[in-house]
Amino acid sequence: MDIFGKVRKIICEHLDVNEDSVTLKTTFEDLDADSLDVVEMVMALEEEFDLEISDEEVEKIKSVGDIVNYIEEHTS
Amino acid sequence: MKHRVVITGAGAVSPYGVGKDVLWENICQGKSSVAPVTLIDVSNYPTKIAAEVKGFDPFTYLEKREARKMDRFTQFAVIAANEAIADARLDLAKEDKDRIGVIIGTGIGGLDTIENQMRVFMEKGARRVSPFFVPMLIANMASGYVSILYGLRGPNSTSVTACSSGSHAIGYAFKCLQDGEAEVMITGGAEAPITNLSFAGFCAARALSTRNEKPEKASSPFDRKRDGFVMGEGSGILVLETLEHALSRGAKIYAELVGFGQSGDGYHITAPDPDGTGAALCMQRALDGAGISPDEVDYVNAHGTSTPLNDKIETMAIKKVFGPHAQKLAVSSTKSMTGHLLGAAGGVELVICSLAVKEGIIPPTINYEDPDPECDLDYVPNVARKKNIRFAISNSFGFGGTNACLAISKIEV
Lengths: 76, 413
Description:
A: 4 helices, B: 19% strand
């Protein structure tokens, strides 16, 4: 599974939404996720991709694409 | 001038499953809900039985996304509250939500969440502790969630008084209505105590029955062979409202809530005062508050935990308050069937009392086989009894020496 596929799977598990409703352009606001939801998803992503995302970086994350880009840049 | 308060809705998640009807049917038939524990591994505990909510799947009743953020005790409370609000036929679109409050008690709150997150903390470190950890564990979250789901902005609080949490919550909600602070209150208790640490702790305190070979016989209040309580879980929620408000919307009324008495033992952290003074005081205060005389009471839903000390001392306290009438009234412990739901007990037991008063049926004390000379009242042994109930009281006593008693009456409007 590619990075987007893995990210989408985690988002769908946490927010109980269909895969169809999650694209790279989807924002967390679209998914009705609050700041606690985002923190929880970030933790799951950190585990999945074995990396650390700083709080400053988390604040910049608005869309699914932002997360996928960050992970692509920070994993080999 | 205080407002009169009536009970207009009831909901329950009990060891028999979801719904007040399944609870009431089983209680009237004298059926035990106690069985071997399945939620945790009990191989290292002396007690291996409990009254678990059978076949409970929160996602059947709650949105998955919301349910994931709730501890089990909050899930029970929200499901029971949904039933109670629907049962009361409250049309919230027409109500003033600033005047509807929530007070749901719990003895220990989200202990399961604490244990799970402690494990995460130990294994993976601080950075993996869930952002939902604190909101899941705190004791007022059952009240919080119910208010959030319905947008209720009246008084919002909880009571944390061990095994009397539910009764205290209902008592405080009663006062909010009496004093005109709200028109409707959603209230009761919720508890999900069947966790590893809690089981270990109650076993260490030697509080639980160890009659593992016959689970359905283990909870035997007032019987000579009683050897401790059986842990239960669930939630009992009621809709209370001022009489004016209930009449104005043509609500059906189960009963009137007429009195609330509370007291402390001032004696010991776990053992009840051997004289039963605190227990007697809370009953007396409930009767005084209601302005009724002891001989008007037909039914006492006892705390009746099935521990050697409680049942003996509660019997003594009932005699102190009721005098010769103690021999004439009916006393039963529904914990003989449901087990002890700790902070939820007061809620579930007031649901039972409301139905008892409305239906004119007194639920039994099951497993009453070998009378104890120190417990010599009419405990409605083993079989439910048809009887018109004028006034009923419900007792709850908790660790720390905390006591609460609620009095309800049949209402003819």
